[in-house]
């Protein structure tokens, strides 16, 4: 069982990174960002092309992938989000679902729907943690999650971070004190895209990846993590991601292998969500409205 907990911890780190981007956009715009996973997919495919296809150094691929992800986020903000600023949140949500589907379609046309393998940042054999063979890439993933958690906590104590929070509470009052809503919107979407890109770059080398892999396999658990932690809590998103990853793998072990229950991972996550939301509707670290 220890091996499943260890694997869930590292898988949950990816969920946590995506969940933080989802919460960041929700705090600022009160909309669910269904395009969050595709920022990671764009980063992974861009890095793969630079490193594998063109043979450039790995760091160039990483930087190129993050630039592509942030660029995609800024384009989405300018072309989709800003023109729909005054529209209903439902229209915005549908538009963001369309962005995700459009990005997947473009990736399929350009890269073709074939599995690819991204070389890891650090090679070598894995280490044994609680009986599970953990790759160096997965250790990097967990370390990056911890660093980003600390960085985000620090950011929201700065003047710029407080400006983001002020804009999310009352955009007109923020404008009165000189905060630019356009600049804040760009910042939020750029940061969300950066977090998604980091998640995609760190997760892609763990296995094979195909167009839309972050949306198809990671987005729903990431949303579950955001809801579990509290949709307005960035620390809650990290905690929720780790919790979802561990519960998924424990479900596979306890329900799938021991009791042969189909859909064990999803059933475990559903049970956890229902339990937490019945006790704390605002999520683990969320605040009551």
UniProtKB/TrEMBL annotation:
The chain crosses the membrane at residues 6-26, 38-56, 62-81, 93-114, 134-156, 176-202, 261-279. One of its GO terms (biological process) is amino acid transport. Pfam families: BPD_transp_2 (PF02653). The keyword Heme does not apply. InterPro entries: ABC_transp_permease, BCAA_transport_permease. The keyword Transport applies. It is found in: Cell membrane. Keywords: Amino-acid transport, Cell membrane, Membrane, Transmembrane, Transmembrane helix, Transport. One of its GO terms (cellular component) is plasma membrane. GO terms for molecular function: transmembrane transporter activity. It comes from the Bacteria. It is a multi-pass membrane protein. Belongs to the binding-protein-dependent transport system permease family. LivHM subfamily. This is Branched-chain amino acid ABC transporter permease. It comes from Glycomyces buryatensis. The lineage of its organism: Bacteria, Bacillati, Actinomycetota, Actinomycetes, Glycomycetales.
